[in-house]
Design brief:
- It is built from 29 helices and 23 strands.
- By secondary structure, it is of the alpha/beta class.
- The strands form seven sheets. Strands 5-6-4-7-8-3-9 form a seven-stranded parallel β-sheet, with helices on both faces. Strands 10-15-14-11-13-12 form a six-stranded parallel β-sheet, sandwiched between helices.
- α1 crosses α9 (about 190-215), α2 packs across α8 (about 150-180) and α23 crosses α24 (about 645-655).
- It is globular.
């Protein structure tokens, strides 16, 4: 049917004064899905989903609501009108309660917000609820008008083809499960089917939003990378990387081994292996080596995208620049995390648009953003998921992933590599034993670079020394401060890494008092806003470059990815993986023949870990390794950072936290887990084998999922930079356009600190609201120029200006 003949509208562009018909929107969304869909097994399923998704907009009720919204000056006026239920019901009429119908219905019902298949609230099936709701909706009217514009015979043919796809999809999952033999060893059928459903949601949400955005912006500005263009792009990137490597003039000593490792990574890029481990010592150049592998692998296997994810902003910031420089094409690299702020509204709008679907050939992001794409309940996160398919995924510092998400992570990597065409590369100097768990383990992976004691020895720049027994019960702050000063006198540049912000702050204050003017004493923690931390890191680097005597007291925020090199590092007892990462900040560039890393134990009064269960478990797992090394060092190859020592640590660590790995939660008073909620949902599903094919509680699990447990933290704008107050005043200007205010908020992220509920209660008197309560601002008396947020206000003469 011609678009001009339709009287039913989906969108209105007030600038061009043009209407988009519902027929045009549905058809264009379907065509957009066809272009973006990486799966032949979902081609007709996804196309059908798009055609039916807005069928509810054919009703008079919705069209009247739509016209009122156009004429209203208040965009938020009036309640929402359900336009999803009708499309799901029309789909179900064609193939009642079939697997195809269930998958299409759920994607339609979820395209403006995820839904639970089986509700933990009452155990009811979403399809039952929607069928009941449909009795009060004008479904008959929608049906008549929908089929006046869409040919029912053609839709029935699409359904037959789509049913064939669903049968194949289920068959592929069953075949894999049979190959793996043991149930739940690498995941389960329901979890994998749930990820296929999430992909269907991702395709619909992205195509629906993108078509709407294109219509409202007046043109299709969505770029699709043809396979040939992609290959040309990767060839250019590979050429630039080879030029970069050739420019390294010094091929002697340690650079010889970096070059060897990099060459091995390039050479294995033509192998059809789906999962790799890149385990090389700190300083071996794994970022460039893994990138070299990825680009050449993309050429050989026609991959669409390279996604690099790391757990810390500091690593992402640093490596994004390295990746851009190595590829020689900075415009193709999207750096996506909350601290990225563009210089003007136009650039910000373009940036926001690319981050919505990760359409860039290279994406550099945080592990938080990456895992939100797989598990968060926000549609903005779900939207990006299809971009993970047919890609190369590099997970850096994989050992830093929180314990509670390990099983979810393993199963998601298994799905992406076995079913979604992705190649997964896990990078770290301390590989966790993800392939040896009793259930939901990672599928076997291959070492990209064979383990070699030769590399361990050649890259050895530090010696780990166990001083945990120096003080009975652990060091108090005063003892630790004198210990730090003793090491500073000997080594001249010392980094101390504490497990808590309170310990770091108290130790900094005591060391500053003891040091006087003898040493430059710096402090780093997340109590400081990003702009403040950046300034301190610059000062630290300047001191290191000028060989000025220096002491830095920090939390574990500097542990990985920060390019600092101290003569001596002192680490408060933690997991052995954290200790080895901390050692990467010592003698990083071989300034000395050997650097020294001392492990100490803090007294519980100096370092309260009662609320930090993961760190306590990691400490407990490290103790047997330290004991074994003190008695039989040869059994651990004579070094605390050997592969045997790391394996022993992870065996104890995983044994101690096995029950935590499935992301345990309590829902409606019932103990369950995110693994269960995203699988067969056994704690809430009252249906037997004849129940729904999809049982997952996507909405509930998505709302509960957090990679980093923020404990209900509150963001506060702090008065660090001089222009902060001026920006806050602009937010209060009621005549300033909303887009400009959003830009100011993005810029203020560099002056924002997140505080816990406990911290907030202590500083409540120093917090004020602006812009109608949308922004909370901290009084300058509660922000210290050295340590950031403090709970005791400064006396008036000492205010930080």
């Amino acid at each position: 049917m011609s678009e001009k003949m339709s009287d039913y509208h989906a969108h209105y562009n007030p600038i061009s004064e043009q209407y988009q018909t519902n027929y045009a929107h549905s058809k264009e969304t379907a065509e957009l899905i066809r272009k973006k869909n990486p799966f032949s097994c979902l081609e007709n399923v996804a196309y059908l989903t798009a055609l039916f998704h807005d069928a509810g907009k054919y009703s008079d009720v919705w069209q009247s609501y739509f016209e009122k919204r156009i004429k209203s000056t208040d965009a938020s006026s009036g309640g929402k009108i359900d336009h999803a239920t009708a499309g799901g019901q029309l789909m179900d009429e064609l193939l009642p309660l079939s697997s195809l119908s269930q998958m299409v219905q759920l994607a339609i019902y979820s395209h403006h917000g995820l839904q639970d298949c089986i509700s933990p609230e009452d155990g009811r099936f979403i399809y039952e609820k929607r069928k009941k709701k449909a009795f009060s909706l004008p479904v008959d009217e929608c049906r008549t008008r929908f089929y006046s514009e869409f040919n029912k015979n053609q839709l029935e043919e699409l359904c037959r083809n789509a049913q064939y796809e669903i049968r194949n999809l289920n068959g592929n999952i069953s075949k894999k499960m049979e190959e793996w033999n043991l149930p739940d060893l690498y995941g389960n059928r329901d979890f994998f089917l749930g990820l296929y459903e999430r992909l269907l949601m991702s395709l619909l949400i992205d195509a629906d939003r993108r078509n709407t955005e294109d219509f409202m912006s007046g043109g299709d500005i969505c770029a699709f990378q043809a396979e040939k263009e992609g290959e040309i792009l990767w060839l250019a990137c590979a050429e630039n990387i080879e030029k970069k490597i050739a420019s390294f003039s010094d091929k002697r000593g340690i650079n010889q081994y970096r070059s060897e490792i990099s060459d091995v990574c390039r050479n294995v890029s033509t192998n059809s292996v789906r999962r790799y481990r890149l385990t090389v010592p700190t300083g071996a150049g794994k970022t460039l080596s893994s990138l070299r592998f990825a680009v050449n692998h993309a050429i050989h296997f026609h991959k669409k995208r390279i996604i690099y994810a790391a757990p810390f902003h500091s690593i992402v910031d640093q490596n994004a620049d390295e990746i851009r420089e190595a590829l020689g094409m900075p415009d193709i690299v999207l750096e996506h995390h909350c601290n990225v702020v563009m210089e003007n509204e136009g650039e910000q709008a373009r940036y926001d648009r690319i981050t919505e679907d990760w359409s860039s050939p290279v994406v550099v992001t945080t592990a938080v953003q990456f895992l939100n794409t797989l598990f968060s309940g926000k549609t903005a996160s779900v939207r990006r998921m299809h971009s993970l398919c047919d890609s190369i995924i590099i997970m850096d510092e994989v050992q830093a992933l929180p314990v509670r998400i390990i099983e979810l992570f393993n199963m998601a990597m298994n799905f992406l590599s076995e079913f979604a065409g992705a190649t997964v590369v896990l990078c770290t100097a301390t590989q966790p034993l993800l392939e040896e768990l009793p259930r939901n383990r990672l599928l076997p992976s291959q070492y990209m670079v064979p383990l070699s004691a030769r590399y361990e020895e050649k890259f050895r720049r530090t010696q780990l020394v166990d001083d945990t027994a120096l003080a009975a019960g652990g060091m108090r702050i005063e003892t630790a401060a004198h210990y730090v000063m003793e090491k500073a006198q000997k080594y001249e540049s010392v980094l101390f890494i504490a497990n808590t912000k309170a310990c770091a702050r108290k130790l900094f204050e005591m060391v500053s008092e003891l040091s006087g003017e003898e040493f430059a004493v710096q402090h780093l923690s997340t109590s400081m806003c990003p702009a403040h931390r950046k300034d301190v890191l610059n000062r630290v680097n300047q001191c290191l470059l000028s060989k000025k005597r220096q002491i830095c007291i920090s939390t574990q925020m500097v542990e990985a990815g920060v390019n600092l090199s101290f003569r001596c590092v002192i680490r408060s007892l933690a997991g052995l993986d954290s200790v080895i990462q901390a050692a990467g900040r010592c003698n990083r560039h071989r300034e000395a023949a050997m650097g020294y890393v001392f492990l100490v134990k803090m007294h519980e009064e100096a370092e309260n870990l009662s609320h930090l269960k993961d760190i306590r478990l990691a400490q407990q797992a490290s103790l047997p390794v330290l004991t074994q090394f003190s008695r039989h060092p040869e059994s651990l190859e004579g070094s605390l950072d050997s592969a045997k020592a790391v394996n022993m640590y992870f065996q104890y660590y995983y044994a101690g936290c096995q029950k935590e790995m499935c992301y345990p939660v309590t829902v409606k008073g019932v103990s369950t887990s995110l693994v269960n909620l995203l699988s067969a949902n056994p704690d809430f599903c009252r249906y037997g084998k004849n129940g729904p094919i999809l049982k997952q509680a996507f909405q509930t699990a998505g709302e509960l999922f957090e990679m980093i447990d923020d404990g209900g933290k509150t963001p506060l704008v702090v008065p660090y930079r001089k222009n902060v107050q001026m920006q806050l005043d602009e937010l209060e200007n009621r005549y300033l356009p909303l887009e400009q205010k959003k830009q100011i908020l993005r810029e203020l992220q560099m002056d924002t600190v997140s505080v816990s509920e406990t911290e907030r209660r202590k500083i409540e008197n120093g917090i004020r609201e602006i812009w109608g309560g949308n922004v909370l601002v901290l009084d300058e008396r509660f922000y210290n120029k050295n340590t950031g947020v403090v709970t005791e206000p400064a006396p008036l003469p000492d205010l930080f200006m």
